[in-house]
Write a structure and sequence with these properties.
36% helix; 378 residues; 7-stranded mixed sheet; alpha/beta; Rossmann fold; 8-stranded mixed sheet
Length: 378
């Protein structure tokens, strides 16, 4: 199979979907790899490094898409990339379709098979391809929040860890998954006062042990969050519902409970955002203010540290890429039910129930939809 790696074109995105080590694995397995010229430069990987491991270097995206069957990316395809997709293509990348009906319908119209990293599950129901970027995003969320609390950036002018004689900042982390845990670890390392909210008591017990009792673990209810908002300096939203749009855990009315120039960091923004007042931002223009509260809602936080992020992501995706190249989509999903859960669109149909519900279309079975990929769309 020929595997294509285009350059990421989303604003401020510097990651790449394959490293030279990944090229070597695919080439050694008998596959061809087509890498767009310059695709790895944002992650400090040269074309020569790819070529040394057997990759073919394509001059532009048109050649990558035109000459490949399996397209691997990092972020969701941009409009000109969607227009290059055909029924013969399999696209493997982050998609976050529940928050983007327009992209969902465009992918349906393309006829391509689209597999989302964020809905692939392992045997224990975990999200192995989301986890590495969740780790990075959680750590960045606290760093970014601490930075935005500085007065020249429009913040309250408070140091997250305080100093002897001056209290530390209060950090609320809403969601105790991978993002929330990593955000809390960094906040604790910076000596902030940290509270983590979640609705799973067993998870809160795990976090209490992981944090060594240094953070408050709180059962998440509307009232419990409201009671803590007046004292919060930094709130990190880390809410995830597998494949679905994120629920709002802080409303606009509740912003009135907060201090002026407090900071909200919405790590759930790829899934629509978990604060009612959130809207997507970029690294170049990361914040906006609503009712005196600073919002940081960058949709590709890990893209700010592409060397770390690229290698962390490709370590996780490589076994799946190899399986797709060796077995094709049908064979790979038959061999791995968790990968089947990653198929979001195939044969012009949506095959992920939360996405179908969010977009308002009928959900098809994966097997049925994959069978339709062999036929032209009506």
């Amino acid at each position: 199979m020929r595997v294509g790696v285009p350059t990421e074109v989303k604003p401020d995105e510097y990651r790449v979907a394959l490293t030279p080590a990944g090229v070597r694995e695919l080439v050694d397995a008998g596959h061809e790899v087509l890498v767009q010229a310059g695709a790895g430069l944002g992650s400090a990987i040269t074309d020569a490094a790819y070529g040394a491991q057997g990759a073919l270097i394509a001059p532009d995206a048109a050649e990558v898409f035109g000459g490949s069957e399996l397209i691997i990316k990092v972020k969701e395809p941009q409009p000109f990339e969607v227009r290059r997709l055909e029924c013969r293509h399999t696209l493997f990348t982050y998609l976050h379709l529940a928050a983007d009906a327009g992209l969902t319908r465009a992918l349906m119209a393309s006829g391509a098979t689209c597999i989302a990293y964020e809905t692939v599950e392992d045997a224990r129901g975990r999200l192995p391809l989301l986890a590495p970027m969740s780790e990075v995003a959680g750590k960045i969320a606290t760093q970014a929040g601490a930075f935005m609390l500085e007065k020249p950036l429009g913040g309250r002018g408070i140091l997250l860890g305080g100093v002897p004689g001056v209290a530390a900042a209060n950090v609320l982390v809403i969601g105790g998954g991978v993002v929330g845990m990593n955000a809390a670890f960094i906040a604790l390392g910076m000596e902030a006062s940290v509270s983590v909210f979640d609705r799973n008591i067993d998870r809160l017990r795990e976090l209490d042990i992981a944090f060594g009792g240094r953070a408050n673990t709180c059962f998440a209810t509307t009232l419990s969050i409201e009671e803590r908002l007046p004292g919060a300096d930094l709130v990190i939203g880390a809410v995830l519902v597998h494949g679905a749009r994120a629920p709002h855990v802080i409303t606009r009315a509740q912003l009135g409970l907060m201090k002026r120039q407090a900071v909200l960091v919405d790590v759930s923004i790829d899934q629509g955002g978990c604060f009612e007042t959130s809207r997507p931002t970029t690294h170049s223009d990361p914040v906006f203010e609503v009712d005196g509260v600073t919002h940081y809602c960058v949709t590709n936080m890990p893209g700010a540290v592409p060397i770390t992020s690229t290698y962390a992501l490709t370590n996780a995706t490589m076994p799946y890429v190899l399986a797709l190249a060796r077995l094709g989509v049908g064979g790979a999903v038959a061999a791995n039910p968790g990968l089947a859960l990653g198929v979001n669109v195939a044969g012009g149909r949506v095959t992920c129930a939360p996405v179908a519900a969010a977009v308002g279309v009928e959900c098809a079975g994966v097997g049925e939809a994959l069978g339709a990929t062999a036929r032209p769309l009506a």
